[in-house]
C-alpha cells in the first residue's frame, strides 16, 4: 500500500520548493514535516536519516533520499516528466540546471545583509532578462511547440514556470519583451494540477521573510 | 560517423575536470578546444553556441550540451555508468551530489582572497573528514563490495576517486581513517582506462597556477 511521500525541510521555499512544485504538478499528494527547532534537526541527524546531515530529505518508495537534484531526478523519472529518450533527457537537464541556478541565487540572497541582498536580487533580474529568458524564448520560437521539450509536458516546463513567477515577484515587468514566455506562463499555469497548486491554501510556500531567515540561521548555525 | 566529443573550456580543471575524468573512465577519446583569449570567449558566445553564455560546453552526438551536470548525466547514461535501475540511479545521484558539493569547494578555492584561504582550507578538511568520507566509508562497509553502488563500476566511483586525489593534494593524512575509501581509490586507479589517465601526458589537468588564473581573469574581464 503506497504511503504518501514525506518531505522534511524548514517552513519555507529554500531548496525544497522545486520538489514541492514537481510533486504538485504530477498530481502527487505529499506530507511535510517542518523543521522549526534545533532539537528536531539534531534528532533527524542523530537518527541517521540525513545522509550528509542536511535537508532537503524525502521519504518515498521505501527510500530516504537526500540532495535536491537527486530527489528531483528521481521524481521526474518516476512521474514520466523526464523525456522519452536520452536526447530529450539531456535537454531537460540543461534547462532545469539553468533555472535551478537562477532560483538558488534568489534563495541564497535572503540570507545576505540588506545592501548585498539588493545587489544579488538585481543581478537575478538582470540574468533572467539577458541570459535565461532570452534562451527559453528562442527555444519556444524555434520549435513553435507548447512545451519546452518533445512536444510534451515535462519537468523543464514546471521549473521554468516556477522560475518565472519567482522573478516576477522581484520585477513584475520581467516578461515584457518575451511574448512566447508570457503565453507559456498562462498555458502552464492553467494545467489543472498547477492551477490548483497556485491557489491559496496549497502547499506552496511564500517568499522568505525575516522569520524564516532567523529560524534557518539558528538551526544551521550561520 | 560520430566524431570525438569536443570539450570547450579553459586549459584548467575548473568545472570541466570531472567531465574529463568520466570520459576517460568510459574509455572515450575526446578533443579539447581551449579558450585562451577574450576573442576566443567572445566568438564562442557570439556564435550562439552557449545556451546560457557559459562553459563547460561539450559538442557530442550532434548536440552542444551545456551545464556540467547535464553533460555528466548524459555521458554516464550513454556509457552505462549510471546504475541498472531507478533505485540505483537515485543512490548514485545522492552520492554524486554530495561529492559535487565538496568538489565545489575545491573548484572555487583558487578564486578565494588570500586572507580567507586558510579558513576555507580548514573548512574543506573538516567537511571531508566529518561529513563526506564517513558516509562513503559506511556505504562500502555496509555491503562489502568493490564499488559504491550495485556491485558495478559507476560514475559515483569515478567522481569519488577524482575527489580523493584533490583531498590528498591538500593533506594526504585526511584519508588515514578511511581504509575502505582508500582501497577503492587504489582499485579504481588501477583500472586500465584510469591508469592511463593518471599518467603524465594525459588530458588530466594540474592544479591551477597564478599565470593561468591571471589569464582567466583577463578573458572574463575580471579585476
Question: What does the secondary structure layout of this molecule look like, with pairings?
Answer:
The complex is a heterodimer of chains A (222) and B (223).
Chain A: E1 6-9, H1 17-25, E2 31-34, H2 38-46, E3 57-60, E4 63-66, H3 68-78, H4 86-109, H5 114-143, H6 155-170, H7 179-189, H8 192-197, H9 210-220
Parallel strand pairs in A: 1-2
Antiparallel strand pairs in A: 1-3, 3-4
Helix pairs in contact in A: 1-3, 1-6, 4-5, 4-6, 6-7
Chain B: E1 6-9, H1 17-25, E2 31-34, H2 38-46, E3 57-60, E4 63-66, H3 68-78, H4 86-108, H5 114-143, H6 155-170, H7 179-189, H8 192-197, H9 210-220
Parallel strand pairs in B: 1-2
Antiparallel strand pairs in B: 1-3, 3-4
CATH class of the largest domain in chain B: Mainly Alpha
Quaternary structure of the protein: heterodimer
Shape of chain A: globular
What profile does the largest beta sheet of chain A have?
4 strands, mixed
Helix count of chain A? 9
Keywords (chain B): Transferase
Protein name (chain B): Glutathione S-transferase
Catalytic activity (chain B): RX + glutathione = an S-substituted glutathione + a halide anion + H(+)
EC number (chain B): 2.5.1.18
Amino acid at each position: 500500500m503506497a504511503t504518501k511521500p514525506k518531505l522534511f525541510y524548514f517552513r519555507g521555499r529554500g531548496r525544497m520548493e522545486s520538489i514541492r512544485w514537481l510533486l504538485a504538478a504530477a498530481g502527487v499528494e505529499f506530507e511535510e514535516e517542518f523543521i522549526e527547532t534545533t532539537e528536531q534537526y539534531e534528532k533527524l541527524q542523530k537518527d541517521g536519516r540525513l545522509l550528509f546531515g542536511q535537508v532537503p530529505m524525502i521519504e518515498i518508495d521505501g527510500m530516504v533520499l537526500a540532495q535536491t537534484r537527486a530527489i528531483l531526478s528521481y521524481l521526474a523519472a518516476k512521474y514520466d516528466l523526464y523525456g522519452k529518450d536520452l536526447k530529450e533527457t539531456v535537454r531537460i537537464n540543461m534547462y532545469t540546471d539553468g533555472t535551478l541556478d537562477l532560483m538558488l541565487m534568489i534563495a541564497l540572497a535572503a540570507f545576505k545583509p540588506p545592501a548585498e541582498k539588493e545587489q544579488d536580487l538585481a543581478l537575478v533580474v538582470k540574468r533572467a532578462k539577458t541570459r535565461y529568458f532570452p534562451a527559453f524564448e528562442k527555444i519556444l520560437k524555434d520549435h513553435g511547440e507548447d512545451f519546452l521539450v518533445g512536444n510534451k509536458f515535462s519537468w523543464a516546463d514546471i521549473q521554468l514556470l516556477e522560475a518565472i513567477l519567482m522573478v516576477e515577484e522581484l520585477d513584475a515587468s520581467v516578461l515584457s519583451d518575451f511574448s512566447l514566455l508570457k503565453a507559456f506562463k498562462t498555458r502552464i499555469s492553467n494545467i489543472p494540477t498547477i492551477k490548483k497548486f497556485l491557489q491559496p491554501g496549497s502547499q506552496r510556500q511564500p517568499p522568505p521573510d525575516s522569520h524564516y531567515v532567523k529560524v534557518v540561521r539558528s538551526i544551521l548555525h550561520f | 560517423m560520430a566524431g570525438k566529443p569536443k570539450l570547450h573550456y579553459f586549459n584548467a580543471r575548473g568545472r570541466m575536470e570531472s567531465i574529463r575524468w568520466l570520459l576517460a573512465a568510459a574509455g572515450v577519446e575526446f578533443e579539447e578546444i581551449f579558450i585562451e583569449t577574450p576573442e576566443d570567449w567572445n566568438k564562442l558566445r557570439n556564435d550562439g553556441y552557449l545556451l546560457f553564455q557559459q562553459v563547460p560546453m561539450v559538442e557530442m552526438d550532434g548536440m552542444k550540451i551545456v551545464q556540467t551536470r547535464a553533460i555528466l548525466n548524459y555521458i554516464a547514461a550513454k556509457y552505462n555508468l549510471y546504475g541498472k535501475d531507478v533505485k540505483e540511479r537515485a543512490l548514485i545521484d545522492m552520492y554524486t551530489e554530495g561529492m559535487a558539493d565538496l568538489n565545489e569547494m575545491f573548484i572555487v578555492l583558487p578564486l578565494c582572497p588570500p586572507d580567507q584561504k586558510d579558513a576555507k582550507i580548514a573548512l574543506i578538511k573538516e567537511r571531508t573528514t566529518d561529513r563526506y568520507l564517513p558516509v562513503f566509508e559506511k556505504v562500502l562497509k555496509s555491503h562489502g563490495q568493490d564499488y559504491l553502488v550495485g556491485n558495478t563500476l559507476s560514475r559515483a566511483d569515478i567522481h569519488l576517486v577524482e575527489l580523493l586525489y584533490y583531498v590528498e593534494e591538500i593533506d594526504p593524512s585526511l584519508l588515514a581513517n578511511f581504509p575502505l575509501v582508500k582501497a577503492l581509490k587504489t582499485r579504481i586507479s588501477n583500472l586500465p582506462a584510469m591508469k592511463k589517465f593518471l599518467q603524465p601526458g594525459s588530458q588530466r589537468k594540474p592544479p591551477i597556477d597564478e599565470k593561468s588564473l591571471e589569464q582567466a581573469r583577463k578573458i572574463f574581464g575580471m579585476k
